[in-house]
Design goal:
alpha+beta; 10 strands; four-stranded antiparallel sheet; elongated; about 575 residues
């Protein structure tokens, strides 16, 4: 057998690059800190940064295994040892080369799996993405297939040499082990022995003289005579096929080494295949786990609604809200996630999420950064589907809402008075439930009862908002009092829809009163200069009715006047400092 010089050069370059990576890993391990075992009573423990202690611990435990894995033994044998040997010593050296490569393969493979386990124990997963984790575990399986296929090829070459040695031992006086070296191909004695020994048939794949067992495929398919790529991919396929089938198709001989190799393939295949399937299932389920939880919860909700015999419309509302919440949050309960974080980190996250929204609210644009951070910390998220009634007129106001996305419809009937209706639309940056702020700012409130809502607020689209509870609104009110600004009072009136409605009704009532007085004055002037007109009205009617009839106005204006004047003025907020508190 004669080695190929180009393949030797390629092997040397590849092995040198890989050995350099292992040497780099050894140098890094000499500078990698570790956690002292005695300090693991609570938390992550104390990190040891002393280089002498790190080196001492590494030398006592893992250094020698890494050192043996990084030694350039194949390069040394190929370029320094084998060229200096001849005869039987050369055959023994080549056997040692194959054995060295196999041992280093096993050593390096034994380093890869503990490294991945250490990464998982430290970070939880090797990679975050599910597909990347599955690909990583598949790569480990392919690497093991590469090692098994390479070992199978080297052992098949060794078994073929064993067959040659057995034939040579039968022809002791005519054969020498030196004849197996390709350098002796021109020797006349070797040619004579080769023609008379019939060694090609005796050591063939179908020969009964020597049973190759699991290595017969290498001779049958002439793997040794193929080019490098064909040889490599066939060996890779052989290892992958037998690892995935846990060695069930391997027909061994009684040779101890071959049986042990088959047992190793079966055990390693069983472990790696179970590890591959388990890890891939874990990674793939990580992307669909919350979806399955949502499906189970949705099925429970459906069963509960059927058990309680809810109406169809109510069921549809529940389904829409459940689906909208899943699409928005993907099953992540934000309150639960935030509650597990430290206070400072929660404050920073709330600051990042809510500060821009709070600054869009005109009432808060004059506050300092500390107050805005405190307000952001107290905001909690809220989701609503179209048609949801967030605040109902006449019900107690329990929270104040600040809209992030979506559109709300706000309307009032002034306590259900016939003919009175006022509505407006709320969008991003608007707020509702301002009665709660007026209640918190009113210094002479006698009881802790919450104020009643003067408007009904309904979600016109899918709405994302933040809510302030009544207790948190009290905190905001206390910050307003510290500012005691008249400009802030006017700004609150301007942006409050309750105050806007009252102002609009007051203006309309004043306009009606102005029109009535003007009509009465005009009627008085006309009565002095012109004779009274015969109008189809009751002569006992009041003067405003007669004036309205004279100018073609309907009595509807009087009813509108009553509705407009019946709207009570909202509670005046007090932005001054409350000395009683």
């Amino acid at each position: 057998m004669q080695a190929s010089i180009p393949l030797e050069i390629t092997l040397t370059i590849v092995r040198t690059i890989i050995d350099t990576l292992y040497v780099t890993q050894i140098l890094v391990r000499f500078r990698t800190a570790y956690v002292a075992p005695s300090s693991r009573v609570f938390g992550r423990g104390e990190l040891v940064l002393d280089t002498s202690k790190i080196a001492s611990k590494y030398l006592r435990r893992d250094f020698w295994l890494d050192f043996l894995s990084a030694l350039p033994l194949p390069q040394l044998l190929i370029w320094a040892v084998i060229p200096c040997l001849k005869g039987s010593n050369l055959i023994s050296a080549k056997h040692g080369l194959r054995l060295t490569i196999i041992i280093q393969f096993i050593l390096r493979l034994s380093l890869i799996f503990p490294l991945s386990s250490k990464i998982i124990s430290t970070a939880g997963v090797v990679v975050e993405a599910a597909w990347a984790g599955a690909a990583f575990n598949l790569l480990l399986f392919m690497l093991a297939s590469h090692v098994i296929g390479s070992c199978w090829y080297l052992l098949s070459v060794e078994r073929q040499e064993e067959c040659w040695k057995k034939v040579c031992d039968l022809q002791l006086h005519k054969c020498k082990y030196l004849y197996f070296d390709c350098d002796t191909m021109g020797d006349s004695d070797r040619m004579t022995w080769f023609l008379s020994s019939n060694i090609t048939k005796l050591c063939g794949p179908r020969s009964e003289f020597y049973n190759f067992g699991i290595y017969a495929d290498a001779l049958t398919n002439k793997v040794g005579n193929s080019n490098f790529l064909s040889r490599y991919f066939y060996c890779l396929w052989w290892g992958l096929r037998n690892l995935s089938s846990i060695g069930q198709n391997l027909l061994t001989t009684t040779y101890i080494g071959e049986i042990n190799f088959a047992i190793t393939i079966a055990i390693l295949g069983l472990v790696l295949f179970a590890l591959l399937i388990g890890n891939m299932q874990t990674y793939l389920q990580s992307s669909t786990g919350r979806l399955e939880e949502w499906r189970v919860r949705r099925n429970d909700t459906e069963q509960w609604m059927c058990h309680r015999k809810l109406p169809r419309e109510m069921k549809e509302r529940v389904r829409k809200y459940d689906l909208y919440k899943w699409v928005t949050t993907r099953g992540v309960e934000e309150d639960a996630v935030m509650s597990d974080l430290p206070l400072d980190l929660r404050r920073d996250i709330k600051h990042h999420l809510c500060l821009d929204l709070v600054r869009r609210v005109p009432l808060f644009d004059e506050m300092d950064a500390c107050t805005l951070d405190a307000i952001c910390e107290r905001l909690r998220p809220m989701l609503s589907t179209p048609g949801t009634i967030l605040i109902r007129e006449g019900d107690p106001v329990i929270e104040m809402l600040f809209i992030l996305r979506g559109r709300l419809e706000s309307y009032t009937t002034n306590g259900g008075r016939a003919g009175f209706f006022n509505s407006c639309s709320l969008g991003s940056g608007d707020f509702c439930g301002e009665e709660l702020l007026s209640w918190a700012l009113y210094p002479r409130r006698q009881s802790g009862a919450l104020p009643s809502s003067t408007r009904t607020v309904t979600a016109a689209s899918e709405v994302e908002a933040f809510a302030l509870s009544s207790g948190d609104v009290k905190f905001v009110a206390s910050q307003f009092r510290k500012m005691h600004s008249k400009q802030l009072k006017h700004k609150f009136r301007f942006h409050s829809h309750q105050w806007r409605t009252w102002a609009a009704c007051s203006i309309q009532a004043a306009w009606f009163r102005y029109r009535t007085r003007k009509a009465a004055a005009a009627a008085t002037v006309t009565a002095h200069h012109w004779p009274p007109l015969e109008l189809p009205v009751n002569r006992c009617a009041s003067l405003p009715e007669r004036v309205a009839a004279e100018f073609g106005c309907s009595l509807r204006n009087g009813s509108q006047m009553e509705l407009l004047t019946a709207l009570l003025k909202p509670v005046e907020p007090d932005f001054t400092v409350d000395n009683s508190e």
